[in-house]
Amino acid sequence: MNLLIDPTAFSIGDIHVRWYGIILGTAALVGLLLAVQEGKRFGIKPEFFMDLLLLGVPSAVICARIYYVAFTWDEYKNNLVDVFKIWNGGIAIYGALIGAFLCGYFYFRYKGYPFWRLVDICAPGLLAGQMIGRWGNFMNQEAYGGPVEESFLRNTLHLPDFIVNQMYVASEGLYHHPAFLYESLWSLVGIIILLVIRRQKFLRAGELVAIYFIWYSIGRFFIEGIRTDSLAFEGPGALGSLMDALWTPMTWFGFEQGFLDPAYGDVRISQLLAVLLVIAAIIFIVVRRTTGAASVHYNDPIVSTKETAAPVTDAKTDNL
Question: Which residues of this UniProt protein bind a 1,2-diacyl-sn-glycero-3-phospho-(1'-sn-glycerol) (predicted)?
Answer without folding.
Answer: 134
